[in-house]
Specification:
Blueprint lengths: L2 E5 L2 E3 L5 E8 L7 E7 L5 E7 L6 E3 L7 E6 L4 E6 L8 E8 L21 E5 L2
Parallel strand pairs: 2-10
Antiparallel strand pairs: 1-3, 3-8, 4-5, 4-9, 5-6, 7-8, 9-10
């Protein structure tokens, strides 16, 4: 089955950090832009960050700019999301997915444009 496997979530206090990993299973992610999304309880899935296939362009939602950093290692078929200065509003299940029709570019946050969704990893920020 072609999908991503997310890991690295956990419990953290406000101001803390986590590093999420997103490993592609069963396919090469080299030519795809990759997006991170999150879903808080009772809310829809929202885009958090995206990285182009060439690693030359990165994008962030306003709510995480300056705190989160996305990166990728195509040799390891893995994308990372470094999350610093975590806040309670960052609580949710984090998913990654590939945009197979974007030509390697980040074209937006519409989850319908993304594929190969994993099961997600839970991030809980509590005080």
């Amino acid at each position: 089955q072609l999908q991503f496997v997310e890991s690295g979530g956990g419990l953290v206090q406000p101001g803390g950090s986590l590093r999420l990993s997103c490993a592609a299973a069963g396919f090469s992610m080299d030519y795809y832009s990759i997006g991170w999304f999150r879903q808080a309880p009772g809310k829809g899935r929202e885009g958090v960050s995206c990285i182009s296939s060439s690693d030359t362009s990165t994008y962030y939602a306003d709510s995480v700019k300056g705190r989160f950093t996305i990166s990728r290692d195509n040799a390891k078929n893995t994308v990372y999301l470094q999350m610093n200065s975590l806040q309670s509003e960052d609580t949710g299940v984090y998913y990654c997915a590939a945009n197979p029709s974007g030509g390697g570019f980040c074209t937006g946050w519409d989850p319908l444009e993304y594929d190969y969704w994993g099961q997600g990893t839970q991030v809980t920020v509590f005080s």
